[in-house]
Amino acid sequence: MKLDPQHIAYMQQCLQLAESALQAGNIPVGSLIVRQGQVIATASEQLPQALDVIGHAEVLAVRLACQQLQTLNLADCILYTTAEPCWMCSYAIRETQINTVVIGAETNVVGGVSSPYPILSAQDIAVWGAPPQIIMGVLRDECRALRQRYPRTGIG
Asked: What pTM, to 2 d.p., does this model score?
């Protein structure tokens, strides 16, 4: 599979955000949101340092994008993230109607696509309509390697 060079470039930016999170003592996850070729929101994971249970990079990026655009409708946006969004992040993505999600590495236990509860990709949640297009595995090895550098502490 040939990867879109734009997806690679944006995922590289996410990896930089994830590295910043790791350097701050947080789980190394980076996320950004693109609209019409422009990055409108970036975020790094804030767990555990911020003591904020919803300090996930994807939720923070979605929140910032909504504030930036003054809308809860992000249907013309693409979300990039180094780690598969969890159920909470998947809810935020579906609720704001983001149309494409580009993911670095899977998070099988609580992932919104690969876990037993795939709410990010579920076709049968009528209130949300069609799920976003999901592109999995962009710079997977790099994303996994960065995640493996995080010490296991029971968080993340």
From this structure: 0.95
